[in-house]
């Protein structure tokens, strides 16, 4: 990649989009399988869950992790806050900016109505918060 690369002007190549979709879907399926097998409150998603969680609470103290408002989540003001959040943790999370799927409602599973596009670090921040607060425990089949 060159220093002059401008992501805003880059082409969306269909084969790359398909590869992203396959990887993101696989990640979502894997995570859902974990949530249905192990209480979320017992999961660690990264080696720095506590640091991500603490930074998330400071940066987004009023964020509704139970039901994400997609319009607010994707607003310019929110995007600016998320960019700042990334800057503090980007070296801690591999592929922090990789696109992934995030459930909008904590009480639902992955599907077209309950999914939103997010970065991997956004996914981690929100799902770590959901797990630490015990909100994902409802999905575990062993409850």
Automatic annotation (TrEMBL):
BP terms from Gene Ontology: 'de novo' cotranslational protein folding
InterPro entries to which the protein is assigned, alphabetical: PBDC1-like_dom_sf, PBDC1_metazoa/fungi, Polysacc_synth_dom
GO cellular component, one term: cytoplasm
Alphabetized GO MF terms: misfolded protein binding; nascent polypeptide-associated complex binding; protein folding chaperone; ribosome binding; translation elongation factor binding
Pfam families: PBDC1 (PF04669)
Coiled-coil spans in chain: none
Domain (Polysaccharide biosynthesis) ranges: 16-139
Protein name as annotated: DUF757-domain-containing protein
